[in-house]
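Retry 2 of 3 after timeout on previous attempt. Resubmitting structure tokens to design endpoint.
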């Protein structure tokens, strides 16, 4: 994932293959309507798995960029918690699904949980849905946590990370189609966004570690 410079994420290959097989079968059977449906499905898959290049920001080493495309749903101040802030970002099918590293950091803990893909409105969303929890430590010893949780999605979470892996800001590390991202940040973080802000992975500045 980190070195994939193709216009489509490699995870799209199997889905596009099934779409092409469906298209070929509909064509052979001369079902024009199904041919059109299959063609639309292939276009939708290609759009969902697009992997655009992004302008690399030249920022201070303490900067924190958005790891996902989406809209900020909430910014909470946490009390009696390891972290001081929780920022939630909602990503849909129209957003680029590629995940990118928000800051130069090392993976200190990585947990992936398989599960359901219910709507965020479901009471079981946080406890049952497929998610991945990633703990990071920056070069300046700042710690933060990112939790990606799938919603109604036809594809699972694709994550390519290992414990103790060192990562460079803006590097690709996975893919999430239609989900929610919760970012937990420490007391010394200065938030640079507001609720409703539209973010782009590796381009939108979320704030700084002081």
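Retry 2 succeeded. Sequence:
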């Amino acid at each position: 994932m980190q070195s994939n410079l193709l216009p489509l994420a490699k995870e799209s290959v199997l889905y596009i293959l099934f779409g092409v097989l469906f298209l070929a079968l509909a064509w052979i059977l001369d079902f024009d309507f199904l041919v059109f449906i299959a063609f639309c499905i292939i276009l939708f898959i290609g759009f969902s798995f697009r992997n655009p290049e992004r302008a690399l920001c030249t920022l201070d080493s303490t900067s924190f960029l958005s790891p996902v495309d989406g809209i900020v749903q909430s910014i909470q101040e946490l009390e009696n918690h390891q972290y001081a802030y929780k920022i939630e970002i909602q990503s849909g099918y129209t957003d680029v699904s590629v995940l990118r590293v928000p800051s130069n950091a090392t993976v200190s803990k990585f947990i992936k949980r398989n599960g359901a893909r219910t709507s965020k409105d479901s009471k079981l969303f946080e406890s049952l849905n497929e998610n991945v929890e990633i703990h990071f430590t920056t070069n300046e010893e700042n710690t933060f946590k990112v939790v990606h949780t799938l919603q109604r999605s036809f594809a699972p979470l694709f994550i390519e990370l290992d414990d103790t892996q060192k990562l460079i800001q803006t590097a690709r590390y996975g893919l999430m189609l239609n989900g929610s991202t919760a970012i937990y940040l420490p007391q010394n973080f200065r938030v640079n966004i507001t609720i409703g802000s539209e973010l782009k992975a590796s381009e939108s500045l979320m704030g700084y570690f002081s």
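Attempt log closed. The helical segments are 13-28, 32-48, 125-128.
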